[in-house]
Design a protein that fits this description.
alpha/beta; 5-stranded mixed sheet; 15 strands
């Protein structure tokens, strides 16, 4: 929903500010943009920020990063921080009261749900182009950004990726123990059928192993391998039809489910697959009992370094995508931007023109370096061509760490999880520790160039009239799918009941969900 009065009020304030400030970055008429070393505001400004705190990355408002932000902008950020497990409750209370911080971390679902409450500052394209060009120029031609709008209206600033290096390394990637294959004279599998044979052989050679496990439990561990074999069980974007599908409604998903049943029967699948977590998975890899997983490839470098403490030849790393029973390959890379994660502004912000000017700065290159690396000359250095180096005394602190890149960002409050609207994903710490396997990185690029990898889809915003019904249907369907997959794979429900399961999912509204999503997709395009 658009809010013309707010829009006009913001534009009037901006016009006044532009008349007084010729160097404002949104000015037209040939004025030079401000140099990066200039302070954004002449007088001190304070903005409030409400966000969550991830358990592995506390937010320290006194850290060097926020000192650098203050020095560059004259802005002090006052944080209202809530543990991530409690943040949904905190947000709901704030949205219900209508009293928001100047800047609030939200999801696209939040914006869809509360769009009619008039609590978020509306961000029409003309306002963004005029006042926040650093953001707008990055998204103006991005179909995914357009699809992520609420009822055709932007109500928040998408978290964007400003990196130009190693952008293909993030995604759902198959990872395998190269050294274990070589040690046992086993060929790298090129199909899922070959993979099954190799994993079965490894289980025989190492009877105490759990060859296939993962960081995510239950159906979530199997989703990406399922897609690689043909389709996910739930709602997914079908790259063959360029429409949304439900895998369970396709005949081929039964074959995929039977494949996982065989994995469980042969001891290939971790017997604790329904209860694993990041810690038990990492421990299993470190102890040499897990030989394959399908997840964020970024974890592989740290695991390899950890394994090499006791076995210098160990290598847990990326492998090429494998062909399914139809001879096809497909996989997903993370979207380069976080379209469902946004920073929304309060519709009642006291100084909207200054707030927009600050948001424009946050999407500048200067802000990207500060938010992702800290303070130049102290926690990072930059060459004339823009290449970043981290001081050696900092780098050495993370040599041998389980996840050097993530540990470093956590310690210094950097990157995605710590108020960073423009993220850099160049894996700088891993690069300086020489943990980047460029040859294997080229494997991902080769599969991408061959058309096998696709970026994750961004589901379009649904019409308000359908949203509540579809969300309710999706909750029911999700429960049926998760429970059914677990029961079938574990053998507590016979596969002969598969058709009844599919009928239950249809009765819960699967076909209606597809109709609404595909109609919204067509409208967005």
């Amino acid at each position: 929903m658009k809010h013309p009065q707010m829009h006009r009020r913001i534009l009037l304030c901006l016009c006044a500010a532009l008349l007084l400030c010729p160097a404002f970055s949104g000015c037209k008429g040939g004025e030079e943009e401000p140099k990066e070393e200039e302070i954004l505001f002449d007088e001190p400004v304070t903005f409030t920020v409400m966000t969550y705190e991830h358990p592995s990355q506390p937010i320290d408002p006194s850290s060097v990063k926020f000192q650098a932000i203050q020095e560059a902008t004259n802005v002090t950020l006052e944080f209202d921080i809530t543990p991530s497990a409690e943040y949904s409750t905190k947000k709901a209370a704030a949205f219900g009261s209508g009293i928001l911080s100047d800047i609030t971390h939200v999801t696209s679902d939040d914006l869809n749900k509360f769009a009619g409450a008039n609590i978020f500052m509306p961000l029409p394209d003309d306002l963004l182009e005029e006042s926040v060009p650093n953001f707008y120029q990055r998204v103006a031609d991005d179909l995914n950004w357009k699809m992520s709008k609420t009822n055709g209206q932007a109500l928040g600033f998408t978290i964007l990726n400003g990196s130009t290096e190693n952008v293909l390394l993030g995604g759902y990637i198959p990872v395998i123990r190269y050294d274990i294959l070589e040690k046992n004279n086993l060929q790298m599998p090129t199909t899922w059928d070959e993979w099954f044979v190799v994993m079965k052989q490894l289980k025989t050679i190492y009877p105490d192993s759990t060859p296939f496990s993962g960081r995510l439990k239950g159906v979530n561990m199997l989703n990406q391998p399922s897609l690689a074999m043909g389709c996910m069980p739930g709602l997914y974007f079908n790259y063959e039809t360029n429409q949304y599908s439900f895998g369970v409604l396709e005949t081929r998903y039964r074959e995929i489910l039977q494949f996982f049943i065989r994995c469980r029967e042969e001891g290939i699948l971790d017997p604790n697959w329904k209860t694993v977590d990041a810690n038990t998975w990492d421990q299993g890899v470190s102890s040499g009992k897990i030989f394959f997983w399908y997840d964020n490839a970024g974890f592989a470098a740290g695991q390899t370094a950890n394994l090499q403490k006791s076995d210098p030849e160990a290598k847990m790393q990326v492998m090429p995508l494998m062909a399914n029973s139809e001879g096809k390959k497909q996989g997903q890379l993370y979207n380069q931007n976080w379209y469902t994660q946004l920073w929304a502004l309060s519709a009642n912000a006291a100084e909207p023109e200054k707030l927009l000017k600050f948001m424009n700065w946050l999407y500048s290159d200067e802000a990207m370096y500060i938010c992702n690396y800290g303070k130049e000359g102290e926690t990072f250095n930059r060459t004339e061509d823009g290449k970043v180096t981290i001081p050696s005394e900092i780098v050495e602190k993370y040599r041998g760490a389980s996840s050097p890149e993530y540990n470093w960002m956590a310690d210094y409050g950097l990157g995605l999880l710590c108020f960073t609207p423009l993220v850099n994903t160049s894996y700088s710490m891993n690069v300086q520790l020489d943990l980047m396997d460029w040859e294997l990185g080229s494997i991902i690029e080769a599969d991408y160039e061959a058309g096998y990898y696709h970026f994750e889809d961004i589901k379009p915003s649904l019409p308000e009239a359908d949203r509540a019904t579809v969300n309710n249907e999706m909750r029911q369907i999700g429960t049926l799918i998760a429970r059914g997959v677990e029961e079938f794979v574990d053998g507590t429900r016979p596969i002969t009941e598969y058709d009844n399961w599919v009928s239950d999912i249809k009765a819960a509204g699967a076909e209606h969900v597809l109709e609404v999503y595909n109609a919204a997709l067509a409208n967005a395009q």
